[in-house]
Amino acid sequence: MENNMKQTLDNHENINQTDVKVEKPESQLHMMWSALKQNRMAVAGMIFIILLVVIAFIGDFIAPCDPTAIDMGAAKQGPSLQHFFGTDIQGRDIFSRVLSGTKYSLLVGVCAVAFSLAIGTVLGAFAGYFGGILDAVIMRCMDIMLSIPSILLAITLMAAFGQGLDKAIVAIGIVSIPEYARIVRSSILSVKENDYVAAARVIGNKDGRIIFKHILPNVVSSIVVRATLGISTAILDIAALGFLGLGVKPPTPEWGTMLGDARTYILSMPHMIIFPGIAISVTVLAFNLFGDGLRDALDPKARS
Predict the structure, then answer these.
(1) Contact 158, 241 (CB under 8 A)
(2) Any residues with CB less than 8 A from the CB of 164 and at least 6 apart, and which?
(3) Please, what sign has the CA dihedral across residues 65, 69, 74, 79?
(4) With the C-alpha atoms ordered 130, 134, 139, 145, is the resulting torsion angle positive or negative?
(5) How far is it, in rounded angstroms, from Cα 283 to Cα 128?
(6) For residue range 152-206, what is the model confidence (pLDDT) as tens digits?
(7) Cα(first)–Cα(last) distance of the chain, in Å?
(8) What is the pLDDT of residues 98-136, one digit of tens each?
């Protein structure tokens, strides 16, 4: 009798262990992706960005013509089966130039944001964590830079540096530093008094380790969102500099430079300005849509 009761209890326990399934909590990355993919506009922006990255790598190989080759016999032609976007005043294929120009706009956008993000994060982290005189000096310098219109400051820097892709990256990166410094500083001020930061101090962690190991990882979401949106701003800035003749050196097929070359012919040959303009607009829109969706996906309140 006792053996039967023990066997029954053992079977019951085995059944319970089999039926009960422990559900593991979803990771933050999985929850973010679940929220992001529900935003169709953000997904569309992300897909277009991926397409742009692919074009940036293979654009020169799939372009039907040499983007810098001059053919005066084919100059000023409208869109056709031979030249999908037409040709410019020097007979260069605009479709090939738009494809090739993708890598320059993306390169400037990503590198300029990386440059400004690195410097702005360090300055904002030190200002927010240490406070006092260091905070006052750093933030007053940032306020002075913000008091000057960004495009005007970029034009001034490019006039001093000269034309060139690397110089454009540095100029646009310098202009964007105050934005990231202010974002990082405000984020650190809101978390530096939390218990885990105090615990890190108690166990003897140095200030640098506390900043980069314990504080910055907890404010990275706001930085990532701003950096994503900052790429679109950088693309607009390099296009504006190119339009004014201060961007990359000709005959580099950069979208803003193409607009600058075509502004004289806007009425007689509108295709020269329409297609580079569409490329800039759609690219900026894609980054903005993806950035907005990423911001909502990283916000727990928006996810709920």
Answers:
(1) yes
(2) 248, 249
(3) positive
(4) negative
(5) 34
(6) 999 999 988 888 888 999 999 999 999 999 999 988 888 877 777 778 778 887 8
(7) 55
(8) 999 999 999 999 999 999 999 999 999 999 888 889 999
Helices (H), the chain: 2-19, 28-37, 40-62, 94-130, 132-146, 150-161, 165-191, 195-202, 207-209, 220-243, 255-262, 271-298, 300-303
CA distance 264 to 251: 17
Can you tell me whether residue 119 is helix, strand or coil? helix
| The two three-digit tokens of residue 77, written as one number | 């032609």
Task: Quickly count: other Cβ atoms within 10 Å of residue 263's Cβ.
Answer: 10
SS3 87: strand
Q: Give the whole-angstrom CA distance, residue 210 versus residue 196.
A: 10
Rounded to whole angstroms, what are the CA distances from 155 to 89, 120, 168?
Answer: 27, 21, 10
What is the distance between the alpha carbons of residues 71 and 57, in angstroms, rounded to a whole number?
Answer: 26
Residues in a beta bridge with 93: 87
How far is the C-alpha of 66 from the C-alpha of 56, rounded, in Å?
15
pTM over 0.90: no
User: Which one, of 166, 148, 150, 168, lies nearest residue 158 by Cα?
Assistant: 168
Tokens of 108: 């400037």
What gap in Å lies between CA 276 and CA 256, rounded to an integer?
A: 8
SS3 (DSSP) at 156? helix
Tell me, what amino acid is at 123? L
